[in-house]
Design brief:
heterodimer, A: 385 residues, mainly alpha, Glycosyltransferase, 2 domains, B: 207 residues
């Protein structure tokens, strides 16, 4: 706090300096201080500050607060009664959840895969090992500057930001940022992503697909911020979220740069980022999340134009697998558990087991040309844990 | 913020509270404190006694969280504090003034939630209020209130803690030291630093 020569710091030459505030709050009383006060501008200033602070009116509790508290103590320890204004957040999750569930247009081949019923317990035993191998692959392949290079792994170099953010998400989502090596990997990746963000909050080179980078990089840095909040990240995320919000179409969707058409994949990444941002306290983006989630919900039937782009001609579409498993994980019914286990079983079977690429997934779906091995490995890993 | 994950950490936090209470051992046991008597009755299963405690302390607790920077979640935080108090009832020992213990819980609830989130929420709400005020009729009477709230928002967390507990909650320096688990001298120095900082802030805002 800078010093103002016109208003010297109170008490620099005052023997009551340390206890002046206590006099004004009534904690102590010295008759000598009352006499001193008339002559000491610094102590008078302290009194003015205390008086001004006390000018705030007191808030009144709602009439039903006592009832809420008494109801809450009756709840089991893992379930606290939540006041009503949390319902929106829950509703948002449900909307997004239902949306992505209905978005999952199980293709013929995929339906057959799902029909291969696999015991969930057996699959669960294998997924942890599989995820750890994937994360080890990411640790081995990170570049010295903290990025992951699409050019080395069959992807489009212009997506370097997004393809650095995806491995970060895979590590953070697996709650695997525990070993010193992985802490270092995440730290370097985070610094790299921050270095690619300009003053306006835009990530990486600006081209038709930079909306992918914006959504995925923002989501990855929000995930870092969730674990390690700091002011620098907060400012950067403020700007990054402003970019996302500014690029949203009035109808709620996001699209490729220069193409005034909605894109479901891009929209889902932005919605995921906004959802996490709201959870972390960026309440000002909540209307944009609502609008985006509503648009997805309104366009989630399999025959709608945007969803045609999501239909897969290959055996596994890693993008669809990621969004489907994200939702199936939160479902409690047996059918969902079986679907989840089947998808995971399929993914486990496709993981490379030997050689330099062991732990990764071969980029053989329709998005592999753009995302390469980094994309398939990150989304498969995210789908498994 | 979705606080569904708060419960587990909140329960874990209870494990640390007896250690904190042991630091109160040099305080006079406040058996004559009516709240302590009520709390001991709660420990024996007296529900109406707990309701009395809630009614007596809900407003001061609400204002504690509001002054700390909570906005929309302030009543949730009050609720969480009372739930923690209730779940601790059987282990409660009257080794300190009841309000000191209550603010230990409240401060932990606040710390668990994450102050930055709350502050951001509050600042956004403040800005919204400011826009509405400017765009409609200027409410001169509300301006000093906004000034004080904005000034509190500019304090660091440590300075805000002591100012809120002292000025608004009326805790004495030693009680603040117990709640925050810091030396008495640190409380003194933080309050003086906070007063100095607030004085500067108020002067800077003068036209």
């Amino acid at each position: 706090m800078k010093n103002n020569p016109d208003h010297p710091v109170p008490g620099h030459d005052c023997r009551f300096h340390e206890d002046a505030a206590r006099h004004f709050t009534g904690e102590i009383y010295l008759a000598e201080f009352q006499a001193h006060l008339k002559e000491c501008p610094s102590c008078q200033e302290v009194g003015t500050v205390v008086q001004r602070l006390r000018s705030l009116p007191a808030a009144e509790p709602a009439d039903n607060l006592t009832a809420h508290v008494l109801a809450a103590i009756q709840q089991p320890e893992t379930k606290l009664a939540r006041p009503q204004h949390h319902l929106w957040a829950a509703a948002a999750v449900v909307v997004i959840g239902l949306t992505a569930m209905s978005i999952w247009p199980f293709g013929k081949k995929t339906t057959e895969i799902i029909a291969q019923s696999t015991q969930p317990a057996v699959v669960a035993q294998n997924t942890d090992r599989s995820v750890q191998e994937a994360l080890d692959w990411f640790c081995r392949t990170q570049e010295a500057d903290g990025s992951w290079s699409p050019a080395r792994w069959g992807g489009d170099p212009r997506f370097e930001v997004a393809l650095t953010a995806l491995p970060m998400l895979a590590i953070l989502s697996a709650n695997a940022e525990k070993t010193p090596q992985r802490v270092e990997v995440i730290t370097k990746a985070r610094q790299y992503l921050q270095s690619t963000c300009d003053r306006k909050g835009r990530f990486g080179p600006q081209f038709y697909g930079s909306s992918y980078s914006q959504g995925i990089a923002t989501l990855a840095l929000l995930s870092c911020y969730k674990n390690h909040p700091d002011q620098e990240s907060e400012r950067l995320l403020d700007n990054a979220l402003t970019v996302i919000v500014s690029q949203q179409h009035a109808n709620g969707w996001w699209g490729l740069g220069g193409n005034p058409q909605p894109d479901v994949a891009i929209t889902l990444w932005q919605v995921e980022a906004l959802k996490l941002a709201v959870e972390l306290g960026w309440k000002n983006v909540q209307p944009h999340l609502t609008l985006g989630a509503k648009w997805v919900a309104d366009h989630s039937h399999a025959d709608s134009t945007p969803l045609k782009g999501l239909k897969s001609g290959g055996e596994v579409d890693y993008f669809r697998a990621y969004f489907a498993t994200t939702l199936l994980k939160s479902a409690n019914d047996e059918s969902s558990r079986q679907r989840l286990a089947s998808i995971r079983h399929t993914l486990l079977g496709k993981q490379v087991q030997r050689g330099n690429d062991s732990g990764s997934w071969t980029p053989d779906d329709r998005w592999g040309m753009a995302g390469g091995r980094l994309y398939t490995t990150a989304l498969a890993s995210l789908s498994l844990h | 913020m979705d606080k569904s994950t708060l419960t587990a950490s909140a329960l874990n936090d209870f494990l640390g509270i007896p250690a904190i209470l042991s630091s109160f051992a040099d305080e006079k046991t406040a058996v004559e404190d009516a709240d302590v008597v009520l709390m001991l009755q709660v420990a024996k299963g007296d529900h109406p006694a707990f309701e009395t405690l809630v009614k007596r302390h809900q407003k001061p607790l609400l204002n504690f969280f509001v002054r700390m920077g909570a906005y929309s979640d302030s009543e949730d935080l009050v609720q969480d504090t009372f739930v923690r108090l209730y779940r601790y009832r059987e282990r409660y020992q009257p080794t300190a003034k009841f309000t000191t213990f209550l603010y230990v819980l409240a401060h932990r609830v606040w710390a668990d939630l994450g102050r930055k989130t709350q502050r951001r929420d509050r600042l956004s709400a403040g800005l919204q209020t400011e826009v509405e005020t400017n765009s409609q009729t200027a409410d001169v009477s509300s301006m000093p209130v906004m000034d004080v709230e904005a000034a509190l928002d500019k304090l660091s967390d440590k300075l805000r803690d002591v100012i809120v507990l002292n000025i608004y909650q009326g805790l004495r320096y030693q009680e603040i030291a117990d709640v925050l688990n810091i030396p008495l001298g640190t409380v003194k120095s933080r309050i003086n630093l906070a007063i100095t900082a607030l004085r500067e802030i108020f002067h800077e805002e003068q036209p």
